[in-house]
Amino acid sequence: MIVELGHYALVLTFALALVQSVVPVWGALRGDDRLMAIAPPVSILMFLLVLVSFVALTIAYVTSDFSVVNVWENSYSAKPLLYKITGVWGNHEGSVLLWVLILVFFGGLVGYFGRNIPAPLRATTLSVQAWITAGFTLFMLATSNPFARIANPPVEGNGLNPILQDIGLAVHPPLLYVGYVGFSITFSFAVAALILGRLDAAWARWVRPWTLLAWVFLTLGIAMGSYWAYYELGWGGWWFWDPVENASFMPWLAGTALLHSAIVMEKRDALKVWTVLLAIFTFSLSLLGTFLVRSGVLTSVHAFATDPARGVFILVLLCLFIGGSLSLYAWRAPVLKQGGLFAPISREGALVFNNLFLTAAATAVFVGTLYPLALDIVTGDKISVGAPFFNLTFAPLMVPLLLAVPFGPVLAWKRGDLLAACQRLYAAFGIAILAVLFTLWLWGVENVLAPLGAGLAVWIMAGSVSEIVTRVKLFEIGPSRALSRLWGLPGSAWGTAVAHFGVGITVLGIVTASAFQEERIQTMHPGESVELHHFEVTFDGSAPRTGPNYTEDVGHFTVRSGGVEVAAMDPSKRIYTARKMPTTESAILTSGLSQLYLSLGEVHQDGSMDVRVYYKPLVTLIWGGCLIMAFGGMLSIADRRLRVGAPKPAARRKMPSAPAPAE
Amino acid sequence: MTRKQRRLTLIGIAGVVLAGALGLILFALNDQIVFFQSPTDIVEKGVPPGQRIRLGGLVEDGSVERSGDANVRFKVTDTANAVTVTYTGILPDLFREGQGVVTEGTVGPDGVFVADSVLAKHDENYMPKEVAEALKKQGVWQGAQN
């Protein structure tokens, strides 16, 4: 009964989405307040309905109702409760339902909190959001209905893919989806602006918090996914340039560019047309990511099922939304007025620089991800584009961007002084040079790039600290008055500094963990030891163990440092009973910011085991930096000026209707 | 600077960066991509020594030999031909005789494929797509699985 209720709610959502798709935007174009007024309540109602659907499916999972195909295929009665709940989105149908839930959640948020948005813009935005909702609910009802029943219910389910039975999975997809789908609202705002033909600085102020919110979650989701792959897959790597990872990374790159260009638009009313295009691109890349991951074009842990009908359906949706929005853009963008002139060396210039390199990097990732697919379709040749391609293209594009990060915030708007900016960064530059020398002294000159990379990371960190120090005038007015200025700094200034600092931290982690990692792979007999960095790892023996839904061989290891026992590590090889599927459970010892990583290979007859031991210096900084970036984003959202809405700027100087500056 | 000059400067810089990025991408595509080949492709057409390729097929039954310190030797077959592969390292969980596998590396002068990575996928039902197609070519693929 509950399951049917969920199904019914979903159908009702589809119907409401159709109404919402037409009525408010029609009202906005005709200037009819009554038609526009239906948008907010309907958006909230749609959210509640999809929530009912989602709860219904969750109940089916928790009660192990195997008469529902989806539950039968993906659950197992002996599974721990937590994984019954997270299993709801550990499969194709459920994850699309989560996708739609977040889609309508964002629509609902705009409906509920968007009172200060002008009515036509809000109504049109919600209509556009409803187009997406209609498309995806139809997709679910037509090809991937999570509520389908089986006539003769089996007694036991098939179980969830064991590597998905992990707390990392419990949070990774929801975070990632809030990010992915969060960009839908920016997209809807952009399309609405194109339809209405009105775009001003206020538009950017409404859009920026939404972009920030989505970006924060996408950052967290990607970091979480990376950490999950790191400890769960047992390969010891934290980024593989796997197409599925790239699928989430492309919207992140475009979204990061969008954040920065929206600042220019908000503060200076420039780069409008470009910002709208970026908003469209960002969500298009999110849709593309959904297509790549959900259609089974790519084979990966995410490709739960490969049903061609689904792939084709998403592809059609993809073409409709991307093609439609880009055509609309081509048609309407010339209507949007240009404003805000600036010199190449200026804050705007720096942000354009940022956008240029981020979009170029996104393009490189895009080509590397899709080229194999395209080549396969065109010539039938099977190729793989792996880490070497991305290291060769992505890294060189990131270096100038990262070098420029500290310059952005110290340049003035409109016309900046590069020399003055350099003077403000002397201290940061000095610290970066010291960091290079220190790294050289610590690790020697075998790898010249690594110390330079560490220097780059420190340069970004020192740059963001010096930005705050300069803004509070620490050295001019003394510490006590500087402290009070510190409190007075706007959230967005803090956000910038903190997020940039996080970038530096992540870069530092990437450099040290890749350049100075130590690795041993060997067969160990009980009693044998291996030495790595300052650790001595002794294999004490292995023993079988039985868990709730698996059996495992556990290897016991003792870790000593300087002869003193510091920890015991128990990596294991598991076999999950329901699917007879083996997994590797690595053991990780965090020591300071570095980690010792142990994973098991083959277990031999004589009690010996193949063991892989890594020492990864400062590896935790990679994810720590992402957390700091996300925190910076949240500080920026918390900025009062974004929430309250700044006072209207005094009548802006009217520009002659000359052609737009290049953007 | 006039408005026009500013615009041209911006377009110029953007053009240079984009051209640079494009050049990098094309260069990397030329150099860094790895072609997938079946054992038959290698046996019949040959592969220049030192060129990186991906070799995929089934792990031949009874061919896996282990010698201390995580060295493995096995044969990858598409039922028509087989190529011997050596690998040092930890094999993935789902590496089994008779199962699909994709390895990446180079062919040595003695015709033995030296792999530096071995992939078998995350799911027990999963057959690497390239392997499935290579097997279809040999007419032995039943296609019951995904």
TrEMBL record, chain A:
Pfam families: CcmF_C, Cytochrom_C_asm. It is found in: Cell inner membrane. InterPro entries: CcmF_C, Cyt_c_assembly, Cyt_c_biogenesis, Cyt_c_biogenesis_CcmF. One of its GO terms (molecular function) is heme transmembrane transporter activity. GO terms for cellular component: plasma membrane. It comes from the Bacteria. Keywords: Cell inner membrane, Cell membrane, Cytochrome c-type biogenesis, Lyase, Membrane, Transmembrane, Transmembrane helix. It is a multi-pass membrane protein. Residues 89-295 form the Cytochrome c assembly protein domain. The chain crosses the membrane at residues 6-29, 41-62, 96-114, 126-144, 177-197, 209-229, 249-266, 273-292, 312-331, 352-374, 394-413, 425-443, 491-516, 618-638. Residues 315-640 form the Cytochrome c-type biogenesis protein CcmF C-terminal domain. PANTHER family: CYTOCHROME C ASSEMBLY PROTEIN-RELATED (PTHR43653), CYTOCHROME C-TYPE BIOGENESIS PROTEIN CCMF (PTHR43653:SF1). Belongs to the CcmF/CycK/Ccl1/NrfE/CcsA family. This is Heme lyase CcmF/NrfE family subunit.
TrEMBL record, chain B:
GO terms for molecular function: heme binding; metal ion binding. Pfam families: CcmE. It is a single-pass type II membrane protein. Heme binds at residues 122, 126. Coiled coil: none annotated. Transmembrane segments: none annotated. Residues 1-7 are cytoplasmic. Residues 29-146 are extracellular. Heme chaperone required for the biogenesis of c-type cytochromes. Transiently binds heme delivered by CcmC and transfers the heme to apo-cytochromes in a process facilitated by CcmF and CcmH. PANTHER family: CYTOCHROME C-TYPE BIOGENESIS PROTEIN CCME HOMOLOG, MITOCHONDRIAL (PTHR34128). This is Cytochrome c-type biogenesis protein CcmE. The gene is ccmE.
